[in-house]
Structure formats: C-alpha cells, structure tokens
Design brief:
homodimer, alpha/beta, five-stranded mixed sheet, about 40% helix
Chain lengths: ~400, ~400
C-alpha cells in the first residue's frame, strides 16, 4: 500500500519550527508494515490543493497535517471536501466539544471557530482531546477518472496530533492494511568503522539476500546499519553480524552509547567519574541523560583552568608546565585524579583545543587527548584530532571518549 | 525566484532521523529574501529521479540534500548528471581530499570511496570540510523542452551540510537573487513571559504596522518575538521594544543565554563556577559551547552523589541528612562551595529530581532548587517544579538557572 504524507505550515518552510510529524508518523506506522513513500511540505493556504491533486493518483493512503484551525489560512478541510465533491455539514458533537472547551478556558466563542465543526459528508470525526479542530477520515471516493485514497486530515500541533494518531488513526490503519506480522526493522549502531568499511565488511553480503533491505545512516563518529526483513531471517543473520562487527558494535535499536555504558556499569555494580576540559561537561550531560545514571555516576569535574586541574584532580603543576595542559601525560593524570578523588572504578578524562582560537603549529585546533582508566589503575591515552567547529568538536570528542570508555568496560 | 528543497533519505521517512535541514535552510536563505515554496522527502535510491523531474519545470533554484556518499544507495550525483546529460569526470582535487582524509583517520581507501570524486562536467565543487563527499553546484542546463534550475547537491549529514551551506552556498545564492537590501527579520529572545503576555505587552501594537509581519515561537522557557519588515522601521521600533521587555529580554537574533553570560563576564573581567546535580553537566556544556568561555569559566562540578557534594563542595553531611539533598539549603551550600573552591566571582548550583523515579509526595519528580551567588557572597535560592521527561527537565532547569545567573550578573 502506497502511503504519503503532506505537511502544511508556513512556519515549517521558514524554519521557525522543525517538522517532527514525519519522523513520528514514520515510526508509528512501521509496525503495521507501512512505510511513507514520499512526504511534501507546502505553505498554509491554497498550495494544499495542488499537493492533494498531485498525490491522489499515486496513493492508497494519504495523511495530511495542519490547516484545520479557525483562521483564514486554514483551508485543508474545505479544499479536500471540494476536490472530493463532498458537501460540508455542521456536526453537532464537534460543535458541542468546541463550545465546551471555550467555556472551560473562559474564551468567547467566535463564529470562525465553528467552521471547525463543518464535516464533509461521509467523513469520520477523529476526536481531538487537546484542541478544538477535530481530525477527519475520508474513505475513498470514486470519480469516473480517478479514485481518492484513504484520506486522513490531522491537526498541526504535535500535542493534538500525537494522541489522536495513537488512539484513533492507528486502529483505523490496522483495518486497512494486510497483516504483515513477522516483518521488522533492526538497527546496528557501529563506531570505529566508516560507512564504506561497514558496507564492505558485512553490508554487501547482506544485500545479496533478496528478502532483506539494507541501509546506512552516518552520524557523528557512528554508522547505523539498518536491516528490514522477515524476523526469522534477521534472527538467523544476527550471530554472523555480531561476530563481524565485534567490539565496534555499540548496541542495537535506539540504544545510545551512554545507555550501553550506564547499563553495563549497573549490571556489574561498578561506578564512573569524569574529568572534562575541552568537552566542557558534555560527557556528564550525556551520561546523566540516562535514567538511573545516579546509581553509577559518582561525579564529574569540568576542569577548564589549569588551577582547577591541579586543585581538584591533583595534576602536578610541574607536569602542566612541562608537557602543556593539552597533552597525553596531563590527560592520564586527570583520569587518575578523577578516579582517585571519586573513588570510582572507571574514569574518563579529556583535554584539548576546541577552538576557534588557542591552536599552535604543534597543537592545532581540534587536538584532543582522551584518557580512560579502569579498576587496574593504569590509564590509557588516545590522541585524536577533530578540526571542526566548536560544537561538533565537543560532540565527536564526547563520542570518542565514551567509546574508549565502553571498550574499556567491556574488558572487565 | 521559486526555491524548492528535496531531502533524500530513507531514515527520514522511517522516522529514525528528524529532518533538520529544512528548518536550517529556511532560516539561512530568508535574509536573502528567499523562501522555500515546497519541500519533498524521498527515499534513498532511484526515487530521486522522479522528484528531480517533477521539480525542474517549477523551480528557479533547487537544493537537494543526501545521497552523495560512497554506498550503493547513494545515487543523487549520478541521476542528476544523467538527467542533465553531463558526463562524470574524476576531479583530482576531490580525490586528493578523500585520500588525505582517509590517511589522517587511518582508514584504508576503498574504490567505492572514489565514486565521490566523480564530478558532472561544468559543475562547481563545494568543498566538504567535515566529510569526503563534496557538494556540487550545477548551473542551469537548457534542453529543447525544458531548462533546469540552479541546482545544489549537498551532503546529508548536518555537520557536513551546515558549514558548506554557510561558507559556499549562501555566497553563490547571493549572486543569483536580486538585492533585497532594506528588508530584514529581527528576533527578540524573551524569558520570564509567556507567548500571550508578550503579545499583549508589545505584539498587538507592532501588528498594527502594515509593513510589519509579526510572529512568535515558543521554546522551552523562552518566547521568540519575530519581526519581518523594512530595516528603518525595525530600527525605529527597537527602543520601545527594549524598554517594554526590560530585563526579560535575553538578547536578539541567534544569541543564546550562554553567549550573553560569557560576554557579560568577559567584559567585566569576572569569573564563574558551576555545581550541578540534577542538570548533570548541561550548564557547563552550554557555557563551554561559547567560544572564549575558558577566559571566564573556571570550573564545573557535577556532584551527583551526596559524598561528592560533601567532599568537593564542603556541603555539611548533617545539612544533607537534615534537609535532604534536594533542598534549598543544600542548593545554597553548593553554590557557596562552588564559588569558594573555584575562587570565582559568580557561581550557580542545581539540585533536583529529574525522574522518571526518585520522587516523593513532598518532593515530586520535577522538583528543583537553583542557587546563584555573586561577589557579595549571599546565595539566592529559587524553587521550581518542571514535571516532564528527563531530557526536557534538564533543558528547562539549565535555562532557568542560566537566566537567574544572567539577572544576577546584570546587578553588578
């Protein structure tokens, strides 16, 4: 079944709002075996007409978001009804809902609000728990020259759309699509290998399976290998994929590096401390994004100044003077200090030059030393260079540091 | 000039990745007087062909993202070249760049990586500072039946696309679009006032100007007031807007709270330390995102455990036992300790319950105490409750803490 999505909203095209509906709907329909084949964003107003006419001949299912509100640029309902030749009729239950909401919020009812109670003949009203404009489901209409798809008109605000989608649209879709049980999407999150290396290592071989769809997504210092196919086949292939990816596999599905680390430490009953210079707290931030991090993360030190490296971590002033604050020995001393001060099992430390200034020919902007230390108390040091903008530098530095930490934890 | 955007990427339609390119590009082109008229998302692979053919007749400018990488599903470059009838030629400078990057990162060069060095005849190479695949600008090609638009092919990963767009695409677009001098979009970033309060305070009055387009964007703990109009009018209105918004105005344009804080401290020659429990390093991360933060940010302590609050910040164990770790007195003691240990002028501290577990009837999930302290050494404490998911809680907590800090700094 061909499913398309049309998002209406001038704010999406101006860039004031990021479109999160596409990703939300894409994820929500996948378990039904449905995939969005194409998505279009058009501005508020009459542009929806051309987008609908363009999509009708191609689609079996069409989901439109936005343009159902009370203002003059909200035209989705009227244009859809006109194209399908369906007269609009006042729906008393929707009218009652709008009046009730206005009373509750102390708003005066305006005539244009009741426009939202006009429903195309034959449409099914989708109740809006968080707003006045109902959603609408319009079954296919056949004309001599074309048949319209199953058409869903949904409100634009995410907090109105999401519960409506979950509770009312998905059950309707379930009736429309043939059963696709036994089909799934599995993702493998890989670090330490580039996209083409992953393809060469395992992707081409997987691609040879006629039932399998193989895809890749490159993220900062990470590649996601995505497989869509029958569950029995995914299960059958898993052992060889795990073997080939080895320690480069961070995890599967939605699990991030920080999730993997917190869960591994929790399972082992071990603890962690961080000492960050150039990553500036981002490693601590990522670790503490994981629910339950407090059980394993004892403390984090953002030691930006030399003095704080000396005082808080016990890094010898002479070592900083001799080697420079951005150096392997200082990174190692920071990791040792962090572990000792916190009394943790593991520690990770970063020191580097995020830029845009502060570089030298010997230590250019992007230079970073990462040290990880485990229960054996012997720090390991890694020297990397990520010459990029400041925020990306911090992102990839935290990613690399967490990966070295993850590999270290795996050793125990 | 009609501008459209095509985003390719199966992961966008599956919902694994949220499309942030549309909003980024929409914002970036606005100052040139350009607006995106239509945007389409299609999967990786051959679907790009139909999307291009469909868009060509309508567009003057067409921006395509994704599908330039080394894997077999990356076909944008090949299909565009074929449609325009342009043979592909190996570009030695791109080849050299790919080899150089692989050498630097210690990756072996694979044949398929060099596909990325194949450039359609007549195309302009857009250098990729953060990846191997270059962007491409293809000037219009005329055929007997149609003329192609100015076509930009850009890489999918945001950290590759953004600097390329800023440094290379915008200057090219500037040459292509007629001058729109005298017209601008100004944003005022406001905290401490809701959207409708901002509208009542100043928005309705601004809306009465026929030359002005007024918009709002609500973000976590912040409202952006957006004005589009002639520069002379924006300048004329500025003083009264500044006066009405007063200390609730964080800054204008893209300047974030953390930028304002770092610049204010720098100007005054003063310094800052942080002590974070529930915000887990996010405040430090935001502060260190600002170039030059090292001049003012002495250190940050992520004191997640009680022990680390005692040891690192000198919070009395008895105080924690008596008041609880999540309490006003502990927040104040953390701020005092952070300032004293670092020897800084200002300090900010957070302690709270991010959830999803750990709440009690007295201190529900979302509870947070924020303390700020300045040169006079007297900590102020604020009690807030943000009952939401963990990541949003950290975001709004850091936003509130930075705002209290900002207001404190303004006093000096």
């Amino acid at each position: 079944l061909n499913l398309e999505v049309i998002n209406t909203g001038t704010e999406l095209l101006l860039g004031n709002v990021v479109n999160t509906h596409l990703a939300y709907i894409g994820k929500a329909v996948f378990p039904l075996g449905l995939r969005i084949e194409r998505q279009v964003t058009v501005p508020d107003g009459a542009a929806i007409r051309r987008a609908l006419l363009n999509a009708f001949p191609r689609c079996d299912l069409l989901i439109v978001t936005g343009g159902l509100g009370p203002t003059t640029d909200d035209l989705t309902r009227e244009i859809a009804a006109e194209l399908l030749g369906l007269p609009l009729q006042l729906d008393p239950s929707v009218e009652e809902h709008i009046q009730e909401r206005c009373r509750r919020r102390g708003f005066a009812i305006r005539d244009r609000m009741l426009r939202q109670a006009m429903v195309p003949m034959g449409a099914r009203v989708l109740f809006n728990a968080n707003g006045t404009a109902p959603g609408l489901y319009l079954p296919p209409v056949e004309t001599p020259s074309w048949a319209s798809p199953h058409l869903f008109l949904l409100p634009g605000p995410p907090r109105e759309l999401k519960p409506m989608f979950q509770k009312q649209v998905l059950p309707l879709l379930e009736h429309l699509v043939p059963d696709r049980a036994g089909y799934a999407m599995w993702s493998y999150r890989v670090v330490g290998l580039g996209e083409s290396a992953v393809e060469e290592l395992i992707g081409l071989e997987l691609d040879a399976h006629p039932l399998l769809e193989v895809g890749y997504c490159a993220r900062p210092n990470e590649v996601d290998l995505r497989l869509i196919g029958p569950v029995y086949l995914l299960e059958e292939l898993e052992p060889q994929i795990l073997e080939k990816l080895g320690p480069n596999l961070v995890g599967m599905g939605e699990s991030l590096m920080e999730d993997v680390i917190v869960h591994a430490l929790k399972e082992r009953g071990q603890t962690l401390a961080t000492a960050e210079s150039c990553s500036g707290g981002l490693i601590g931030h990522r670790i503490t994004n994981v629910p339950g991090a407090s059980a394993v993360y004892l403390q984090g030190l953002v030691t930006y100044s030399n003095q704080s490296k000396e005082r808080l971590l016990g890094v010898p002033a002479a070592l900083i003077a001799q080697e420079g604050a951005v150096s392997g020995p200082v990174a190692a001393a920071m990791a040792e200090g962090a572990r000792q001060v916190a009394g943790s099992d593991f520690a990770v430390a970063t020191t580097g030059i995020a830029g845009p200034t502060g570089g030298s020919p010997e230590r250019p902007v992007g230079t970073v030393f990462i040290s990880v230390i485990g229960p054996d108390g012997a720090p390991e040091v890694y020297h990397e260079c990520f010459p990029t903008d400041r925020e990306t530098f911090k992102q990839v530095t935290s990613q690399a540091a967490l990966d070295y930490l993850r590999r270290k934890i795996l050793e125990y």
